[in-house]
Amino acid sequence: MPRQPLNQLNTFKLAINASELVTISSIEQLLSLLPTDEPVLVLGGGSNMLFTQDYAGLILHNRLTGISITEDQDNYYLEVAAGENWHDLVMSCAEQGIAGLENLALIPGTVGAAPVQNIGAYGVEFADLCQHVQAIDLRTCMARTFNAEQCQFAYRESLFKSQRHYFITGVRLKLPKAWQPMLAYGELKTWSADLDIMPSSLEVAQKVMGVRQHKLPDPASIPNVGSFFKNPIIDAQRAKILKDKYPAMPQYAAGVETKLAAGWLIDQLGLKGYCIGGAAVHERQALVLVNQGSASPTDVIRLAKYVRAQVWQNFGVNLEPEVNFIDATGYSDIDKV
Length: 337
Description:
single chain, Uridine Diphospho-n-acetylenolpyruvylglucosamine Reductase, domain 2, Uridine Diphospho-n-acetylenolpyruvylglucosamine Reductase, domain 1, five-stranded antiparallel sheet, 9 helices
């Protein structure tokens, strides 16, 4: 069987191939391929994956589609298939006057990837909206429904990120009709302070899009996976020491701990524009690593490790990648590649 190119199925646009690639458009089709002894990888939009080498197994490209919206007196309920585009869902809801998703506008990827990463932005996380996630266990072919608690959501984490043997088929979201916009974070706070009336869900979504388009490069023109690193969370004592040393350092409460801005840490080291091979730290947003057109997986890995090392040496803070590292047989991590 000829190798299957993946350069158009990962937003880093790396020249990577797979041994076998199947587009999944129905659950029946998926079940016909299972179980299997070869390595299996589920792929959505490829917007949060860094392939470090050719994949020597079966890739299941999730293209399940379908959206159903129901309501009662207090809430809207969205049943959404996992292959739907996340941003398209957000904008469709906002345009219909269904509020609650607007802060998550322009986050790339599919609906099925949203619970895996527990995507979030501007004070809203997927976990806040989720009623349940439906999935098929690739080992047993059994269908399961996980309620929000069973999904074990945390900051950019979930059950599905630690247990990779699930093919997510759909999600159910609950959006209260008694909606108040979440405008307490970043540019939304500054923007809303100048408004005379409360903005609509659509207006908030459009503002979020404008902010993201200004800060983040479009993967269609500059290949990237968005935020490459998570914002680190450290204990309060360590945070105070850093704040005393660097008074301008942004810090945010995270329960009893403190969240730092990874982009700020990288920016303070003057690494915007820093290149290794064809990979570079983006010139406007230090949290984003980009493919300048000819990057190899090795270039990106070396750059990511260099950035991590510099942040550790200068601030004593460990940066964890937000992107998923994929080697020849499945998920790996930055310390193993």
